[in-house]
Amino acid sequence: MRVEVDVGVIDPVAAVLDRISFDGPVPPLPDPVERVRLREAFGWTVTQMGRANDVRRETVWTWESDPPRTPRGEKGQRYARILAYFAAELARVGADGGSATSEPEPADEPESAPDVLAPEATSRELDFDIEDPPELSWPDTDPAPARGEMAVAAFDEPGSWIDLPEGVTRLCIRCGHPTSSVVDGRPRHVYLQAMAAMGMPRCDTPPITQAEPASAPRTETTPTSAVTTLAPAPAAPAATAPPPTATAPAPVLPAAVPPVVRPPAAPRRPAAASSSRRANRAAKKPTLKPVPPEFADGPLAVLGITDGALTVHLVDGRTVPCPARSLQALAAWALDKRKIRLGAARVHDNGFDQDPLIILTESAVAHFGLPASLADQENLRLPADHKALKSLTKAGWELTKAGFGPWPRIFKRLDGKRHCVQLFLTPWGALEDRVWGPAGELPAGDLARMLGTYARLLITPRGTVAVTGEELMTSLRPPTKAEWSHDQGRYVSVKVPHTLHTLVDPAPPEAPDEHPVVVADYPEEGSRPASEALDEEACIWVRPADLITDVERACTHVVALDVQVAFLAACRRLHVGTGPAVHYPHNPDFDPALPGSWYVDLSHIETDPRLPSPFTSSGERPDGPGWYATPTVAYAVELGADVRPMEAWVRETHSPYLQPWYDTLRDAYLRVMADLGVTADLDDEAFLTAMATYRDGDPLLVTLAGAIKATAKAGIGKLRQRPNMGVDHVFGDPWPALKRLTWRPDIRAMILSKARTNMHRKMHNLATFAGRYPLAVNNDCVVYATDGPSPLPLLYGPDGEPVRGGFRLGVNPGSVKHQGSQTIDWALDLLADGVNIANEIKDASLVRVA
Description:
By secondary structure, the chain is α+β, with helices and mostly antiparallel strands. Among the domains are: 12-197, no CATH class; 226-249 and 280-463, no CATH class. Strand 11 (409-414) and strand 12 (417-425) form a beta hairpin. Helix 2 (32-42) crosses helix 5, helix 13 (444-457) crosses helix 21 (699-717) and helix 19 (659-675) runs antiparallel to helix 21. The longest helix has 26 residues, at 745-770. The protein is globular and about 90 Å long. The model is unreliable at 1-9, 97-153, 205-285 and 845-850 (pLDDT under 50).
C-alpha cells in the first residue's frame, strides 16, 4: 500500500520566527556592519528581513547603512531579537563544525532554510552600494529588479553531493522541505536524469525568490574603457551548445558549467565622513553580473560581408560565419542555441529574457535582397508584397503590426511560446543621426562593441532611444508576475502593485487637445481655453533688457550653467500616479503627497521680475486660475503662498514607479563618464577641466554617453506621445499610443514640473544668498553675468562659502556643468532684441556685426 503524505510549502521566514522567543530582556543592537554580516551569513535577504519585521526592504537598507537609522519601538526590539538569534545559531553551527551558511539541525519543529531561491536562480549576489536610501511611506510588495542570473545545472551528477549522517536533515533551499543531501555546500534535494525520465518533478514547488535592490549595480572586472571592457566576456557554454567556430582565437572554456557557490559575505566598512563616503562611492566601480551560458555570445550581433562571406561580429570582438541566405534562415539561426547563443537575461524577476538583436549593415541588407533605402519614407516600412517578406511569411514567420521597417521584429509561435528576433537595419536609419551620429557607418566590430555595451548597461535596443527608454521602464517594473494558485494548481498571471498595470484615461486637463476626452467637450481643434489645459513644460525665458542692472552691464562676461540630465534627475524619488484619476470638483484641500492636477489661482503670488515665474513655462506671471501639477503647487506653498484649489484630479494610488529607471540610467551614465575621465569625486577645478576635454576621448564612449542621456529624455517624452497627424489620423480619434500602459501624460507633467521647480529653487537661492539673477533660461540651461569666463563665482556667496541650496558642479544628474561663456557685449546685443542667449551661448559664431 502506498502512503501519500501531503507536505505543505514551508515558509522559511515564519519557520525562523517560530523558534525565536520574543519575551524577556531585549538584546542590544550590533553596529551596521555586524547587522549585515549576521543577516548574510545566516542566508537571509533584505526582503526576508523586511518580511520578518513587517517593514519594507528599503527600511532594512537604512538600518544597515552608515550612518544607520536606528529601529525603535516594537519593530526595533523584534529586529534585535532576530539578529541575536542569528548570532546564536551561527555560533552553534560553527561549534558543530558546520558552515556559517548551513542551517542548524531541526528539533521538534521546522526551521528556516538559509535562503529559498527560484530554481533557475539559486545564487544571486547582493553586491550593491546604497546612495541615500529612499525614505518612502508606501508598502512595496514588488521585488526589485534583478540584473542577471547564474545558471544551475539541470541534473545532479553522481558524486556531486554528500549525504548527511543518518537522522540528520536540513531544509532544502529550493522547496523548504527537509533533505539529507548537501550539494555544493547547500542543503538541497538531489535530482537525477533518471528521475526526470520517470516523470518525477524537481523540488521547485512555489519558492520565495530572492530579489536584488533596484539600484544594484552590475558586475565586471576592472575596466579601462566602457566600450572595450564592458562587452560581456564569453561565459561557459552548456554541454549541448558548442561555441560557434570563430575566426579569432576563442578563450578556453570549461567543458561544463561548474556548480554555483555563494561566496561568504564580506563585512561592510563604514566611511569616516559624508565627503569620504562620496569619494568611496565614486572610486568603487559598479560591477556587471556574469552572463548566463545560454547568452554567452552576447545580447546582439552585427552582420556584414567580409571576404565575400556573411560574417557575424560579436560584442566581445569575435567573428563567426553566418550561413543564412534568407531572412527566415537568419531568424532560425539566431534562435538556435546549438549554433549561436544570443540574447540577454531579464532585468527583473517578473519579466522575460531579452530577445536577440541582429544588426544588418549596408552589405548585409544587400545580401538578403533588401533595398538600400526605404522608398516609403512616410510609413517607414517595406511593402508587404516584397519577395523577401513573402518568403518569410510563407515559412511560417510573422511580423508585428509595425511591419518591416528600420526595426522589424520577426517571430514564430512554437510550443505555445512566441520566439522573437529583433532586427536593426542601419542603412534605413535605425540609428538616429541626432543621437548616434555617424555610428551606422562604423566598422561592424566597433558598432557591435558600442551597442553591446549600451545593451549591458541598460537593455537591448528595441527601436529608437524613445522606444528603448520606454521598454526599459516597463522591464524594470513589469506590470504582472507569475503567482502560484492553490485553487488552480498552477502559476497564474497577477497584477503587481505599484506598477502601471492597468490602462487608464487621462484627466481632461492632462490630455492633449486631440484626445477623445478633450474633443468630447471641445470638438473644434484649438477651441479649448488655455486655462483648461495642464501646461507643465520646461522654462524658456529671457529677462527684459530694461531690468538688467548697471552692475550686471559692468561685468565682463556671461556664463551658462547646464543641469546634468535634468529631467532624469527629477525622477528621483518622485511619486507618480499608478491608478486612475479621482475627481474632486469642490474646493479640495491641497495635499502635496497626491500626484495629479490642481485648478488653482497662483496669479496673486509676487515674484521678483528678475527671476522667471516658477509657475509657467514662459516664465511670465500667470494671469488667472489654471491647472498645475502637484510639484508646482507644492513649490508655491514652499514660497509661502496661500494655496486654495478650486478643483482637482488626483491619483490616490501612487508610488516612486520611476526609481529603478532613474537608478539604471544614472549608473550607466556615471559609468561611461567615469571611463571618459569625469568622475563624481573630482573637485570643481578638476571637474571643469575633465568636462572641457572628455569629448576628445574615445569617440565611441562619447557617443554612448550622449545616447544614454537621449534615452532618458526621449523615454520621458514617450509618456505623452501624440499622433502623427499626417498619417490618416482624424482629429479626436484614438491613436495607437493610447493602448500602451505607459501612455501617461500626467507622469510626464509631474516630471517636467519637478524639473522646472528644482531649477527655480536653485536660482531663487542664488538670488537670495548671493544677489545673482539670471539673464536667460532655456530648459535646463541658465545664464548669469560674471566678471570672467569661469562659472566658479556662481557657486559661492559673498562669504566664500557654497550657496546653500544653489548650483553644484558635478557629473551626477541634477548637478551642473559649464555650458559656455561669452562676452557681456555679445549678450547685451542679443538681449536687446529678445534673443534667448541660453540657447545660443555655445555658438561662438553668433556675434552681431555693426
